[in-house]
Amino acid sequence: MAVIYNRVALIGLGLIASSMAHALRAGGFAGEIVGYAKTAETRATALEIGLCDRVFDTAAKAVQGADLVVLAVPIGAMGALAQEIAPHLAVGATVTDVGSVKQAVIDAVAPHIPTGVHFIPGHPMAGTEYSGPRSGFATLFQNRWWLLTPLPETDAAALARFRGLLESIGAKVDTMDAPHHDLVVAVVSHTPHLIAYTMVGVADDLRRVSNSEVIQYSAAGFRDFTRIAASDPTMWRDVFLTNKDATLDILGRFTEELFALQRAIRLGDGDHLHAYFTRTRAIRRGIIEAGQDTAAPDFGRTPKT
Amino acid sequence: MAVIYNRVALIGLGLIASSMAHALRAGGFAGEIVGYAKTAETRATALEIGLCDRVFDTAAKAVQGADLVVLAVPIGAMGALAQEIAPHLAVGATVTDVGSVKQAVIDAVAPHIPTGVHFIPGHPMAGTEYSGPRSGFATLFQNRWWLLTPLPETDAAALARFRGLLESIGAKVDTMDAPHHDLVVAVVSHTPHLIAYTMVGVADDLRRVSNSEVIQYSAAGFRDFTRIAASDPTMWRDVFLTNKDATLDILGRFTEELFALQRAIRLGDGDHLHAYFTRTRAIRRGIIEAGQDTAAPDFGRTPKT
Fold it and tell me: Which domain of life is it from (chains A, B) (predicted)?
């Protein structure tokens, strides 16, 4: 347990920032945690539940004197935020963000970062469908990836220090360039989310199946979709608007493939279906072996009694 | 703890039947459990791990003297199975099945059921992505729906007795007609599964994103899809072939809706996206309130340490 940053400023106090606060505090990795949130209610909550030692009513005030500044606001708000805080950043400070899209954040934030301040774009690949200051928990990042997309000019020592913090709170860290990051997440996260949102919306729309039936009989499959589709609407709107090209690219591949399966169903081509379903099964085994999910037969859910 | 059926014959010993065996044994609801499986290996396993008191190498032998016969084979195999066992069924016995599609099973099985035998088609809405005799566990049906689609001529006393058994092993039971059942499950289960299979297949196909990246970085979203897409290929092939019309119907609605969202992304229509994502969030709340999933912030997953 050693302090890695003397003062951490969390800008935005949602799921990710509040989980960071819990994890930093649990490990004693921050000398002080300060915060900013847009609403007075969230700021009051942050003090009440002990997320922050101090809260401020502007981001500009919150970042003063901080050696780590975490931008944890929707992607669409990053540019204006960076512009606002830029004059108040301490020389030598590290600024990071937690946005799910990296090129758009770099384009919006990097031009505002003053000389002598280190900008390290980041993406914690962890989350739940909950949001707000009460949704965080200290173990959210345990064994999860935190991808960093440093710029060519990023200072190696600043990067190593930040990476050390992330590993201290349990994350696995990898680095890659921003465009590749954005394509990878379009595949493993953004497009699946859009599809889940769509399916849940369709179910909600159907008049022949009542909403209570959809809710009551939702089993594995749809139930998992609704969990995904309950994620923060603002965050996801910004994800799709800012990772547009990669998402549309993967969506195109998805519909092509879906139409092929649809055709197999229509034609009664059982061999095509069976071969496809057998192939996808192997990927699942790989994910369990990589430790990204539990293999418990009940999915780790506690049976209801 | 009271015996409800003197001899239960489980025909097919996969996830559902083996879970039934565990649940029946745990509650003492069956005087004797006998079984049939196609392969000698599965039959040996069933004896070794105590699923069945006796196993038989033909379904015809297994059903003799049983007062409850459970057909737990892929839907495509139900018709031939019913034909084989029909002459060996005891008068007064109840025959049920556990297929995910009901009209196709009724069409295949009902014509073979002799007078004096009660056929009660059923669908336990519970499962994991595992299959085989070792995949079962006694609590699989706890608090899960078991839908029955009795025929107009189904005997009320036989139905009440079977319903009592299902409730004894923890299931919630509802009845509806077969065509409506098939539409409901097309919405809450079959179409979501097809979509998950598709997305996982697309990810596997992409050359610009390596398979190891897909596996390593799979987060909520894709990770849940892979769990769905790891389900038994034969079972799901038969589901889509036998619930073709309802699945194609819902798929049509799905692609229509997906194209509208895709267009909103292309045009940068954030309001459309935000409104859609806000609406789907409400459904999730309904599911948690209905007790179909856990609201634990970590989804009930045990954090890895």
Answer: Bacteria
Task: Find the residue in B nearest to A251 (Cα).
Answer: B262
- Interchain proximity B219–A290, CB inside 8 Å: no
- CB distance B208–A293 less than 8 Å? no
Question: CA nearest B272 in A: which residue?
Answer: A237
Structure confidence by residue, pLDDT tens digits, B228-269: 788 888 989 999 999 999 999 999 999 999 999 999 999 999
The dihedral region occupied by A276, where left means phi > 0, alpha psi between -120 and 50, and beta the remainder, is: alpha
Count A/B contacts: CB-CB distance under 8 Å. 354
Alpha-carbon torsion A283, A289, A292, A294, what sign?
A: positive
Residue B260: phi and psi, rounded to 5, are -65, -40
Q: Is residue B43 part of a domain?
A: yes
Minimal Cα distance from B173: which residue of A? A217
Total domains, chain A: 2
Question: CB B187 to CB A202 under 8 A?
Answer: yes
The domain that holds B283 is classified in CATH as 1.10.3660.10
| Token couple for B199 | 């997305």
A149 and A252 together in one domain: no
Report pLDDT digits (tens) over A106-133: 999 999 999 999 999 999 998 887 889 9
pLDDT in tens, A159-176: 999 999 999 999 999 999
Q: What is the ipTM of this complex?
A: 0.82
Cβ separation A286–B222 shorter than 8 A: no
First to last CA, chain B: 40
Whole-angstrom distance, CA of residue A30 vs CA of residue A25: 7
